[in-house]
Specification:
Layout: H1 2-13, H2 38-45, E1 52-56, H3 63-73, E2 79-83, H4 91-103, H5 112-122, H6 129-137, E3 143-148, H7 156-167, E4 173-179, H8 187-193, E5 196-200, H9 201-204, H10 208-217, H11 224-234, H12 238-249, H13 254-260, H14 266-275, H15 282-291, H16 299-306, H17 311-322, E6 325-327, E7 333-335, H18 337-350, H19 352-368, H20 372-382, H21 385-402, H22 405-421, H23 424-436, H24 440-452, H25 460-475, H26 495-510, H27 518-534, H28 538-554, H29 558-574, H30 581-596, H31 600-611, H32 619-635, H33 639-653, H34 660-665
Helix pairs in contact: 1-5, 4-5, 5-6, 11-13, 18-19, 19-20, 20-21, 20-22, 21-22, 21-23, 22-23, 23-24, 23-25, 24-25, 25-26, 26-27, 27-28, 28-29, 28-30, 29-30, 30-31, 30-32, 31-32, 32-33
Length: 666
């Protein structure tokens, strides 16, 4: 045995046999904080002996460590390992390295065929794939060959030889190829023949449980919220998690780190640059920076931004070459969040003017597609106040009524108080968003700005918006706001303004000093609800139904109260907003109905679930839920606890701005 090993070693060091560093054919060591992934081991074990195992995923997905762990655990099958690099893009060098790795195995070191190949190489004759296949056919026991980083092989001769080895596999050899992209070995044909066993990026992504194990092995103990945030930022990308773990060890503020963790974090940026971007042509790097400003990236927008009619094909090429560009279910392209955040930050640093212009182009494109939320986000990032204001005038009311309040408020803040003060449309829109939050002082200030900048001949739509804003403000008791003469019928202002005006009239009836005209209020609210449903204005639909439920409850119509409240909860559920601040009011009415029919357990459960919403609840909704919950607790025998909750709810309601009839009903 000693003589045979010496022969192999001599052959590898002789002229004509390329020197193979020991590390190249050694199974990689596992780091101390390595997280075994037993489910993936089992997935690899499911491969049949005649199948080629292909592990294909982006850089940093954990391919190498997974395979190293697997082959160490399945040591019943000897494994020859070759870590490939660019120097192996040469057929004689590649196959000589494979022979060297095989000769390092105890059971193969004495194989005459492999020794003959080594001896021939020592005399200057190159090893070729056919010779290797013939030698392996004579092996007396099965072996496994792992070719890691196979994406480094691009030469025509090398790929031709690899494909031949796959097409004519030696009977005793199990072949594993791993890389960032699929090897050009006719993967579809192998799949069709049943000779392919695939492990791809979706399987390699760390689950939240895997991530928790990895972080614990690194000495980190994140709570569930922090873990969820990190997992979302990295999308389970192994390299991202490991780099975050390294950085977290040196951080005293876990929440602060996670809030700002992105591809621009130093260690992540260095990894992305060294492992991914530096391997791309300069033109491809620039293309990626340009298309990184938006996610998702529709093909038409990529063409608009880059001016390249073949932009979609370019994205597909990058998807194949990096693995960090993928397709959404709708067919749009999407760049991994960490890579994208690095690219965007790099574009902003290197080409700030181009960065702003690209965002402005994207804003106009999304606006043309009827996507105001995307449009406003890009207009803000472009720093273009004029464009943002223009988009707000066009879509602000719809965003309000559809419930896209966060984007709307951010855009209003982006244009600034100076611009709003000179534009009554923007000031009125801002006033209504403040009223929705019950922020009465800022709302009154915006209304004053609107009046001061009022044009001599306002267009009808602007008059309608002012009427709506002042009706809503008056219902909440804002002083010094003269109620305008109500318009009995909506003007020709479009469905959004017509719906807003109808809701405003309905709300105003709740605050009418002369008393609520119930039939009139119901007529306005029903009209608002119908317009909301017809025009997909989800927030308005829920609000209208919620107020109809309150109206029915105020006049003792239990059946009508329950019907409207159920409709509101159903509408909120349909658009993923239950439980939330949207549905808290109607949920309270349903819990109240449970209490009235003698079901305190159901009332407590329903109100308790609504109170668990993470959003700030409207004051009257919070009061209703706590009052009903307290009453239900008292009804179930815990009298002191229930009464304390009801009293605390009343104290918390205090002087909150609530229409007087609603307050009386509560």
């Amino acid at each position: 045995m000693g003589i045979d090993v010496e022969v192999a070693g001599a052959a590898r060091s002789a002229p004509g046999f390329p020197r193979v560093p020991a590390g190249k054919t050694s199974i990689p060591e596992l780091p101390a904080e390595f997280t075994p992934r037993r489910a993936l081991r089992r997935l690899l074990e499911q491969a049949a002996p005649e199948q080629v195992i292909v592990v294909s995923a982006p850089a940093g997905s954990g391919k190498t460590l997974l395979l190293a762990d697997w082959v160490r655990e399945s040591d019943w099958l000897e494994t020859a390992w070759v870590s490939l690099d660019r120097d192996d893009d040469d057929a004689p060098r590649l196959w000589s390295a494979v022979v060297g790795a095989l000769l390092a195995l105890p059971s193969a070191a004495t194989d005459p065929g492999l020794q003959q190949l080594a001896g021939a190489a020592a005399t200057g004759r190159p090893v070729v794939a056919d010779d290797l296949a013939a030698a392996l056919d004579g092996l007396g026991r099965p072996l496994r060959l792992v070719l890691d980083d196979v994406h480094e092989l691009t030469g025509k001769e090398v790929l031709h030889d690899l494909a031949r080895l796959v097409r004519r596999p030696p009977a005793q050899l199990s072949l594993v190829v791993s890389g960032r992209t699929d090897p050009p070995i006719s993967v579809p044909r192998l799949r069709l023949e049943g000779r392919l066993h695939e492990v791809r990026a979706d399987a390699l992504r760390f689950t939240p449980e895997d991530a928790a194990t990895l972080l614990a092995a690194s000495g980190l103990d994140l709570d569930p919220r922090q873990l969820a945030m990190l997992h979302a930022r990295t999308e389970g990308w192994a390299a991202g998690l490991r780099l975050a773990a390294l950085a977290l060890r040196a951080s005293d503020d876990v929440d602060g780190f996670l809030t700002h963790f992105s591809g621009d974090e130093r260690s992540v940026a260095d990894y992305l640059t060294g492992e991914i971007l530096d391997g791309l042509p300069t033109e491809a790097q620039h293309f990626l920076r340009v298309v990184s400003i938006c996610t998702p990236m529709p093909a038409a927008l990529a063409v608009e931004l880059t001016g390249d009619p073949a932009a979609e094909a370019r994205l597909d090429e990058l998807r194949a070459s990096t693995g960090l560009v993928d397709r959404t279910a709708r067919g749009d392209s999407r760049i991994h969040p960490l890579l994208r955040s690095y690219l965007v930050a790099d574009l902003a640093r290197q080409e700030p003017a181009a960065h702003r212009q690209l965002h402005a182009t994207a804003a106009r494109w999304w606006s043309g597609q009827g996507q105001p939320v995307h449009a406003l986000r890009h207009a803000e990032r472009a720093g273009d106040e004029q464009l943002t204001a223009q988009l707000l005038r066009r879509t602000g009311v719809r965003l309000l009524l559809a419930g896209d309040l966060g984007p709307l408020r951010r855009a209003l803040a982006a244009v600034g108080p100076g611009v709003r003060a000179k534009d009554p449309w923007l000031a009125l829109t801002a006033a209504i968003t403040h009223l929705d939050e019950r922020a009465l002082e800022p709302a009154a200030a915006e209304l004053d700005d609107a009046r001061r900048s009022w044009p001599e001949t306002p267009p009808p739509a602007l008059e309608t918006l002012r009427t709506s804003a002042e009706l809503l403000a008056g219902a909440l008791g804002i002083p010094r706001v003269p109620l305008p003469r109500p318009r009995s019928e909506p003007g020709d202002d479009g469905p959004e303004l017509a719906a807003l005006l109808s809701l405003s009239h309905g709300v105003a009836e709740f605050g009418n000093p002369a008393g609520t005209d119930v039939p009139r209020a119901r007529t306005h609210l029903e009209r608002a609800r119908a317009l909301a449903e017809a025009n997909h204005l989800g927030y308005l639909e829920v609000q209208s139904l919620s107020m109809l439920s309150t109206l029915a409850g105020m006049r003792g119509d239990l059946r009508g109260m329950v019907t409207a409240a159920r409709g509101a909860v159903a509408a909120a559920t349909r658009i993923g907003r239950h439980p939330s601040a949207w549905s808290a009011g109607p949920a309270g009415m349903l819990a109240y109905a449970d209490l009235l029919v003698g079901a305190p357990g159901q009332a407590a459960a329903r109100s308790g679930a609504a109170l668990e919403s993470w959003e700030a609840l409207p004051p009257e909704a919070a009061y209703t839920l706590h009052a009903v919950h307290g009453a239900a607790v008292a009804d179930r025998g815990r009298h002191a606890e229930g009464l304390a909750e009801m009293r605390a709810a009343r104290a918390q309601l205090g002087g909150s701005p609530v229409p007087a009839p609603v307050l009386a009903g509560l």
